[in-house]
Design a protein that fits this description.
14 strands, 506 residues, five-stranded antiparallel beta sheet, Alpha-Beta Plaits, alpha/beta, binds S-adenosylmethionine
Length: 506
């Protein structure tokens, strides 16, 4: 149905400035209005307006039609998991988003905000080359967009696929499985777990859990593996999210440090049951809004620097209509550090693999002396032929070094050169697998470093833009995203300025 006038109402929560900006932009992109007027609670929009497009607005809660007020899909999703009254900030844990913590997780609203601003309609197919815990893939599922993700971290892929699988199972079915699981948990023989078996996995886990908790979490794992059939990864992911809370690591620390705070008083089994029940309730509420998904989106374990080679084995390999991602920081968050227990407990990595996994991430700060020398040589000869401004910038950082800088700081210019080389490979790959005129949107963080006592503010988005252009992308726009928190455990560390970089394939 097409209408000629509507009133749009903003949500009741507090907006960041960029969200108001995106709200204006989605009106323009989705509704193509002839006039837009700001009014008390939102906007009055005049033009030839498609009602279906109104439902897709993310930064609005309601719109008017002749016959009354109607909720947007986003408002229905966000309020589906609210416990009480008015919230100060938007809800980010609705649907399956609360399955598992993940450092650097997207705020879900921004994904659909970006899809709207880019004008990506339902049934399109998009790719997220750094999909992390799958926020893009889940939000695409909510809006009937096909999406494929890849990540080099096996835990990221595991969490993403557990979320996506959940969307395709009736919540009541998961509730029945949970009941059966909890009723049979006591039947698992604990005695065999009390005996210590020597294996790298067990040695590692025993060093990070008390004996009693180790036995409990292993019982839970065995029960899940034996009693939940095809749905075991959903329940394993839910249990994995509790591991750090029950470990001897300080749970809120971004690095691995020995615990000083007391262990929780509730047993891991009870905490699991409670978490799983809340998750299933949220899933059920979201399924009331978006239905049960028939063909879930999917995440692949893949290095996005080698996406072309790797994707030859994927079952589904279309030409993509768009790419949307948040790449790692130039000197990355310690993704793997806080996930070590989950990676080992879920058997996704051996304790020995962990260092390699970390060192292999784009943006990793792990550097051996040999690697550092290799990348110093690469910078010197500009081995990867980075565009001159970016190469010169890395050289400038190198020139600023002095003996007062320790090993980590001495590595910064070479880490930056490696990061930009990695991102160059990703820009080339995505250009190859997307359709003509496809947009590529990246939410990119800024960085800074201190060399010889001098502060360098590294404008990563501007440098990435130059690389993208040198690879053949057109630059459409760079939109600042002020006070956008990637994570909030340590607000002092939370990144405050990011940029939405929008590129377009010619
Ligand atoms: C900022 S996070 C993405 C978070 C994601 N948007 C979410 O909502 O969870 C960046 C991700 O890039 C992944 N990554 C780093 N290097 C990679 C590479 N070479 N190939 C694929 N993924 C990589 C990391 O494992 C991490 O999950």
């Amino acid at each position: 149905m097409t209408i000629t006038e509507t009133l749009l109402f903003l949500h009741n929560y507090r907006y960041f400035p960029y969200e108001k900006d995106l709200a204006r932009r989605e009106i323009e992109a989705l509704l193509s209005p002839s006039e837009v007027h700001r009014n008390g609670q939102g906007f009055k929009v005049i033009g030839s307006i498609d009602e279906v497009a109104l439902k897709r607005l993310v930064y609005f809660q309601k719109y008017t039609l002749d016959s009354g007020f109607f909720d947007t899909l986003q408002h229905r999703l966000e309020t589906s998991c609210l416990k009480t009254g008015r919230q100060k900030r938007q809800s980010t844990r609705y649907s399956v988003h609360g399955l598992h913590e993940y450092k650097g997780k997207f705020n879900p609203q921004i994904v659909r905000g970006i899809l709207n601003v880019l004008g990506i309609p339902p049934k399109s197919t998009i790719i997220d080359p750094f999909c992390g815990s799958g926020t893009t893939l889940v939000e695409c599922s909510h809006s009937e967009v096909n999406a494929l993700g890849c990540d080099i971290n096996p835990l990221a892929v595991f969490i993403s696929n557990a979320k996506l699988q959940s969307l395709s199972v009736e919540a009541q079915r998961l509730r029945d499985i949970l009941d059966r699981l909890m009723n049979n948990l006591n039947l698992i023989d604990k005695n065999c777990l009390l005996q210590i078996r020597q294996s790298p996995r067990e040695d590692y886990l025993r060093s990070w859990f008390t004996k009693e908790i180790f036995v409990e979490i292993e019982c839970l794992r065995i029960a899940i593996e034996n009693l939940t059939g095809n749905h075991k990864n959903i329940f394993l992911a839910l249990a994995s999210d509790l591991l750090r809370d029950y470990s001897l690591q300080e749970p809120l620390d971004l690095r691995v440090r020995r615990r000083k705070t007391p262990l929780p008083t509730q047993s891991p089994g009870e905490a699991f049951q409670q978490k799983a029940a809340i998750f299933i309730n949220n899933l059920e509420a979201a399924q009331d809004v978006v239905g049960v998904k028939q063909e879930p989106n999917y995440a692949y374990l893949c290095d996005s620097r080698e996406i072309i080679k790797n994707s030859e084995q994927w079952s589904h390999r279309p030409a993509y209509d768009a790419a949307v991602t948040s790449p790692p920081y130039a000197t990355a968050l310690p993704y793997i550090d806080t996930q070590r227990l989950s990676l080992v407990w879920l058997d996704l990595a051996t304790p020995k693999d962990l260092r390699f996994l970390d060192a292999n991430l784009t943006g990793s700060r792990e550097f051996t002396k040999k690697k550092k020398n290799f990348w110093a040589e690469s910078l010197k000869s500009n081995r990867n032929q980075l565009v001159s401004e970016v190469h010169s910038y890395c050289c400038e950082l190198e020139e600023a070094l002095s003996d007062t800088d320790g090993f980590r700081r001495q590595a910064v210019p070479y880490l930056m050169y490696r990061y930009f080389s990695d991102m160059q490979a990703v820009f080339r790959n995505i250009l190859e697998i997307t359709k003509i005129e496809a947009p590529f949107a990246l939410v990119v963080g800024h960085n800074h470093t201190i060399l010889s006592g001098q502060r360098f503010n590294i404008d990563t988005p501007a440098l990435l833009k130059k690389i993208a252009i040198s690879c053949g992308w057109g630059h459409q726009e760079s939109i600042p995203l002020q006070t956008y928190h990637r994570y909030s455990i340590h607000s002092a560390n939370a990144v405050r300025t990011e940029t939405l970089l929008i590129l377009k394939k010619p």
